[in-house]
Amino acid sequence: MRxxxxxxxxxxxxxxxxxxxxxxxxMQRAAAGLARVCLxxxxxxxxxxxxxxxxxxxxGGDALFAGARLAxxxxxxxxxxxxxxxxxxxxxxxxxxGGRLVPADGAAALSAVRRADLVLDGILGxxxxxxxxxxxxxxxxAAEAGGGIRVAADLPSGVDADTGVVAGAxxxxxxxxxxxxxxxxxxxxxxxxxxxxxxxxxIGLAATLPAAxxxxxxxxxxxxxxxxxxxxxxDKYARGVLGLVAGxxxxxxxxVLAAEAAVHAGAGMVRALGSAAGAVVxxxxxxxPAEGRVQAWVVGPGMEPDADTATAVRWALDDDVPVxxxxxxLSVLAADEGLRAAIRQRATTTVLTPHxxxxxxxxxxxxxxxxxxxRWLADxxxxxxxxxxFATIVAEPGGPSWVNPTGTSWLxxxxxxxxxxxxxxxxxxxxxxxxxALAAYLHGLAGRLAAAGGPVPALxxxxxxxxxxxxxxxxxx
Length: 477
Known about the structure:
Elements: E1 2-4, H1 7-18, H2 25-42, E2 49-54, H3 58-72, E3 76-81, H4 88-96, E4 100-103, H5 107-115, E5 118-122, H6 134-145, E6 149-153, E7 175-179, H7 191-195, E8 197-201, E9 215-217, H8 220-226, H9 236-239, E10 241-245, H10 252-264, E11 269-273, H11 277-283, E12 296-299, H12 307-318, E13 323-325, H13 328-334, H14 337-345, E14 350-352, H15 356-363, H16 370-381, E15 384-387, E16 393-395, E17 401-403, H17 416-429, H18 435-451, H19 458-463, H20 465-473
Parallel strand pairs: 2-3, 2-5, 3-4, 5-6, 6-7, 7-8, 9-17, 10-11, 10-12, 12-13, 13-14, 14-15
Antiparallel strand pairs: 1-9, 15-16, 16-17
Helix pairs in contact: 2-3, 3-4, 5-6, 10-11, 10-17, 12-13, 13-15, 17-18, 18-20
């Protein structure tokens, strides 16, 4: 499990750690790890040209000390002073190792960036806010246009550490070396797009960070631990029975796709109701077109936002089992305060699965800061919010948010969301821990497997789910 911490938490943890270690030790640890990664990227330092963009805070000090270590390994290091003040001890170390300092607004600065084999961004740290301006923006542009490797110290300058928001000009990194822990802005767009490959280096911060992180990321091993597996005594009820109200006369395929996903994800039984049930059974003969006991509901894929859909939502919410609301169900929810009140009063899990447009209708505002947006809606309704997108976010009311690490841009295709809803319903019916985060993980993994680098229809994503599950269960009984 990877954990990301807010700036305030990181600051508090750094302060607690600095009280335990010698003065300057934390900066030296960060600089050593940063220099080590740079040397690996350069495949050695001797004779390499390195440009270090230096701001006025501790991030600039980290970069200067890292630059000094690179200079001692034979690199030709030019530090470029972007702010009025600069870390004095770091500058002394750089000069003592043979590095030089030039102002940001001169020709020497642009020349150093353009010819550099590696450009190290130490302009702003996690406390930085807003876009880069003036010479800093020009140097970031020159680094992106040049041929050197671009490395960010802790966080690309211009990216908000807590939200991932980029307000304007920013440093685009090939690699970000995060000190001690991940920051949320490295995980969610657009900050994620500018961070490149993120490598976390140990500076001893784990001892003082809180146990509960606000943002979590599943890894393969964590996903495997959460995956429901049938035992020798399992029957279809033990594996989970899903009630599915999906599809319509206009969009019967949505019900078929949701059912395909549920079946391929291992549901013990799927019960299909509604006007598209016949189409669902025709495509999947094991689906049962009849009412009966279920352990979770999925309502809304492919349904019109009409009275019948509203009735189906109310009916599902009245049942004491987890409920997934998608597509048409979200549209009726957006217009019906009574349904919102019913969700707030539920004792069992409700999961909402909006894309950005559906979120806007539900919340009345676009989800510009996606982590905060998902968190706000989850807390407002007392429901889990699975905000779909390139980096899907799952926010639990009063709990953490999850950022999904799997997926591919080829998943942006009609029916992909229907597959996700059916998969999620099957996992909820089976009682999987953290089912929404696990569903997003498996959906993204199946998308990668099905796409194999090219376009993929939604049906193939559903049918790739067994392979995605197998990748988690190799070696398991």
